[in-house]
Amino acid sequence: MERDIITVYCLIDEYLKVSGIKDDVRAEISNAEVLLIGYMAVNDFSGNYYKAHQYSMMMQLVKRIDYTRFLRRLAKINEVLSTLFLFLGSLFQRLNGAKIYSVDSFPVELCQITRQSRVRLWSDPSLKGYNASKGRFFYGLKVHMVVTTDKEPVMVHISEGSIHDVTAGVALP
Length: 173
Prior knowledge:
Elements: H1 2-19, H2 31-44, H3 49-58, H4 67-76, H5 78-95, E1 101-111, E2 128-131, E3 136-148, E4 153-160, H6 165-171
Antiparallel strand pairs: 1-3, 2-3, 3-4
């Protein structure tokens, strides 16, 4: 696991250098370290940023940073995440060209469907979708992913809840 963490950190750091994204001179922790914790949360902790933050602080993988400061820094460099994910996905795809891939989608509910009329943040009728596996409607976004058989994410696309999986599949690069 250590070798994977070091490899991903180096890839993230090089990507940020090539993209021309510079760290704030006042920051004690670099953007690459913040993105590394975010990557660990998605890859190793099932999307739990708190557990990934606690693990990285306990193992002293990066310099000490408060959890709320980490979330603010991660939100500030949010636009980098999608391009970074595409870069890492295409890199992993080139390295593992002979693998079998799986495509799936899952909903991310912003609120329960009964509260849809009271939503003030992101009130959009296109966010109402249907989850066929649960047989119910939801209000939120859909995440469409391409993963390897080893559960390594390759590509991701986020769409409104009303978008059909076939339509979103065309949008995957």
